[in-house]
Amino acid sequence: MNYETPLFFQVMAYADAADRDVIDMVSGTPDWEPPAALRSGLREYADLESDRFQYPPSDGLRELREEIAARRGVDADQVVVTNGAGEANYLAMARALERERGREFLLTDPVYPYYPGKATMLGGTHSSVATDDEGRLRPEDVRAAASAETAAIVVTTPNNPTGAVYPAETMRELVAVAEEYDAVLISDEVYDHYDLSGRFASALETDSTHRIVTNAFSKSMAITGVRVGYAIFPPELVANARSRHMLVTVATTRPGQYAVLQALRETGPEYYERNRELLRDRVDTFTDALDAAGAEYTTPSGSFYVMARFDGYPGTLETVERLIDEAGVAGMPGEAFGDSRTDWLRFALVSPRVEEAAERLATYFD
Amino acid sequence: MNYETPLFFQVMAYADAADRDVIDMVSGTPDWEPPAALRSGLREYADLESDRFQYPPSDGLRELREEIAARRGVDADQVVVTNGAGEANYLAMARALERERGREFLLTDPVYPYYPGKATMLGGTHSSVATDDEGRLRPEDVRAAASAETAAIVVTTPNNPTGAVYPAETMRELVAVAEEYDAVLISDEVYDHYDLSGRFASALETDSTHRIVTNAFSKSMAITGVRVGYAIFPPELVANARSRHMLVTVATTRPGQYAVLQALRETGPEYYERNRELLRDRVDTFTDALDAAGAEYTTPSGSFYVMARFDGYPGTLETVERLIDEAGVAGMPGEAFGDSRTDWLRFALVSPRVEEAAERLATYFD
């Protein structure tokens, strides 16, 4: 087995080595503040008795699991606290394969590149269902692609990289397709707090033994480095996932779990609303500049990303490097996300310099 | 695939539910203080700029990898910082299988039960080489058990549960056996700071492309819940392990990495010596009581554990529950560690009440 270093790291390295000032719109790491209670939770933890520095329960601190369960309307026993959404997706995909109802993962195109990587690592195969130019996924296309070989359908909503938010009907239909083919829908909802459309629908809204929901506090609390996420399994599927979690990581970091629990309890809706407002402003600023640059683009309904297409600038690493050198703005090539966006570039709105980046692009393409 | 909940958890649950005061000598979680700099490192982290709350490099903070590499005499590029030794062993075992030079793991008996669990989860097989009553492993026995099917030999030194410390010659020979059979020696050295004998020898002392060393700060810094460990790979094997790490957990918790780095830099040898002294005292106290109780036992050369055998009390869950109820002391049944210690019990010396536990056992068996 061999895995490639994600293109992501190559772009970051190129931007870092550039001879000029470059505005980083490459990765999905928020540049806003974590909740104050997250910081105070960590501070508090540092002074706890030494026994609180020892293993938490493998599946997570009980209070954290209960807090998550209450918010998501599930039983605490269905929740496994993980090392971020990364581990949550890994556990979910492994669990789907362990059902031994097929070895193929149905992904979307464009796709978050870690999914095909995980599928291959787990010894599964993968194929893709194309979304439309706005990132909409048609459940009938998923149904047409599904077969007895389908182990799981893996989707992200709000979507990275398209910014699409799948409506409730789509989510219901995706669960139905999973049921029809005795597969599992894995719904990665890590951007749920960045739904800018008000139309986000969790897969949890459709009760089923055929869907797993993954999430994390990495994006919602702007703490991608703390590594606390979770997966919610149907009761029938949770035991094996819990065992794998125990055998792979034993447990997720306890200071992080403690701080996230404090932050969940003490952070009001205004924190999340403020971050959404910030994103809305950035979307406006950036897409205005894209208009000025004569580019085609998608206005995200959620998540952090704007996809843009500039005539004569294909979505390749070469173009990205050229824009780093010539415009001083670093994005991601669309080719990193599958076959359908090879003409596009992705820009992450996670820099305080989005306005400046927009100006640079508008000037460059003028 | 199905995994059982480790017996460990059953024993803990039974002890928790007992109607009387029970001294917990079940798990390997230190009851002593983490280094002061670990606490101050966490406190400091809580006040860093928000960009420091975002993803660290997937394979670990550069300064931490360099600090580890300098201490272990390897190149920083060989180090992958992991979610504890649990993930380090998982990555090492997965990497051994990926070489496609056999699918069998050669383990020892007694064995740390997570190893056979990981072997099965990874789709490998496992067989065992018995150690003697003192826990000594004879490399010629390992050689006799090895074959073209051997993917890896997995050992722990200082050992859990036997307390044995393998001498330098054993480690050299184990590496030689791995080389002869084109396998990998995986040496889990998580108890290296609890070598009470002065004879500990790391597998790193034998230069080879056929050995992987795993470790963590969980035991050495008394922080099993923080989840920072590492694996050191030969340069030839590190790339795939790094990719798997990225695909499974993305990265290990950054506050934990930051705090461990501070603690590594600022904690002098007296911290570790003090903890070893504490353990030495506890070994003396506990084995004196075992003498008084007429029990057979092993005096550990390292790690936290004393194995004991009481006539008429086999090393079963039943016996452990009986001792919880009747003596008020909770240990682990020897049967949890393989076939060779089914007459034995394991007691972890990680309670401030070791003396009281010793008295209880001496009285009970009087």
UniProtKB/TrEMBL annotation, chains A, B:
Organism field: Natrinema salaciae
One example of a Gene Ontology biological process annotation: amino acid metabolic process
InterPro entries noted in UniProt: Aminotransferase_I/II_large (IPR004839), AspAT/PAT-like (IPR050596), PyrdxlP-dep_Trfase (IPR015424), PyrdxlP-dep_Trfase_major (IPR015421)
| Cofactor names | pyridoxal 5'-phosphate
Complex formation: Homodimer.
Q: Which family does it belong to?
A: Belongs to the class-I pyridoxal-phosphate-dependent aminotransferase family.
Residues covered by the Aminotransferase class I/classII large domain? 21-360
Q: What is the lineage of its organism?
A: Archaea, Methanobacteriati, Methanobacteriota, Stenosarchaea group, Halobacteria
Which residues are in coiled coils? none
Q: Which UniProt keywords apply?
A: Aminotransferase, Pyridoxal phosphate, Transferase
The name this protein goes by in its record? Aspartate/methionine/tyrosine aminotransferase
Recall the GO molecular function terms of this protein's record.
pyridoxal phosphate binding; transaminase activity
